[in-house]
What does this fold into?
Amino acid sequence: GEDVEQSLFLSVREGDSSVINCTYTDSSSTYLYWYKQEPGAGLQLLTYIFSNMDMKQDQRLTVLLNKKDKHLSLRIADTQTGDSAIYFCAENDQAGTALIFGKGTTLSVSS
Amino acid sequence: GAVVSQHPSRVICKSGTSVKIECRSLDFQATTMFWYRQFPKKSLMLMATSNEGSKATYEQGVEKDKFLINHASLTLSTLTVTSAHPEDSSFYICSARGQLAGVQETQYFGPGTRLLVL
It folds into this structure.
């Protein structure tokens, strides 16, 4: 079945870049997503990338996709304390409807 | 602003009672809504997929008689936890699949409902 793996924790200093990595198994996923969850809140869609793209940049966010290795990464430039949250990567399930999530990477930003 | 709302945001109930959670898409019509459950320090687990006007499709291991889902309109889906027990305490998140102007169709998530069963 589909599976999405992420490292669980990342700690960075304010102003540094953060890189959150994710691997997935379903090569038929059309889109891959990054969601952000702040404490006690729901999920916020940060960005997504179409499976035929290698890279997508959106302000401080850069998404890199290596489809051959089924590896997805999210880079946050100039990380701020407000970026502290749990970041989930997700892929579509085989039916292409529901999302399959990784366990989430907790990003801790210290000043 | 929020495009998917959930109500209530928090609920505490006694064991054995039923709790209804509403999920509404605010700016678009959602033919498909999803219900997820999030355990502490765990990822989101898909519980069921709900299509407007038809029966929900439940994931393996999810009791359909315990977690009743109704998707009566294109903007509203409800999850009823029947005869709730303490092990049902969790964070329940709905999402609605739809397309906002200028944005690829994707899932928009509600803010979640924290259920505590005493």
In short: Chain A touches chain B through 21 residues (CB under 8 Å).
